Amino acid sequence: MSRIRGRDTKPEMVVRSVAHALGRRFRLQRRDLPGTPDLVFPRSRAVIFVHGCFWHRHSGCRKASTPSTRREFWEEKFARNVVRDAANERKLRAMGWAVLVIWECETRDRERLAEIIGTFLSERDCELCATRGRRGGIEQ
């Protein structure tokens, strides 16, 4: 398990590449936010987590299998991960951040991924403009 990387994973790099291609700028791994989100869009107050299907238990995904040895250990570990993820998401939402979780298996289709990220960030920008009394980013 010591070889499991927590950052700069292939799925994370794909998400970064897509977000950058959309013209969005972001910060990486902000430790001052709960859960240390993978991508942080400060202007939009939005974060993206890139979760591995195995480690974070993507329901219905074939990659979310449980090892056959030491089954109790793994089930406890996975349960803690899921609870921690939910708590971090709740804390971020309470702080006014929008949260998007992208699963590892969703990173294969770049076009669909670009659509998901673009929609998420556009909707968030519209919400912020409405609360600040702006329209289209121009003061009225």
UniProtKB/TrEMBL annotation:
Matches recorded under CDD domains: Vsr
E.C. designation(s): 3.1.-.-
Keywords assigned by UniProt, alphabetized: DNA damage, DNA repair, Endonuclease, Hydrolase, Nuclease
BP terms from Gene Ontology: mismatch repair
Gene3D superfamilies, sorted: VSR Endonuclease
Similarity field: Belongs to the vsr family.
Protein name according to UniProt: Very short patch repair endonuclease
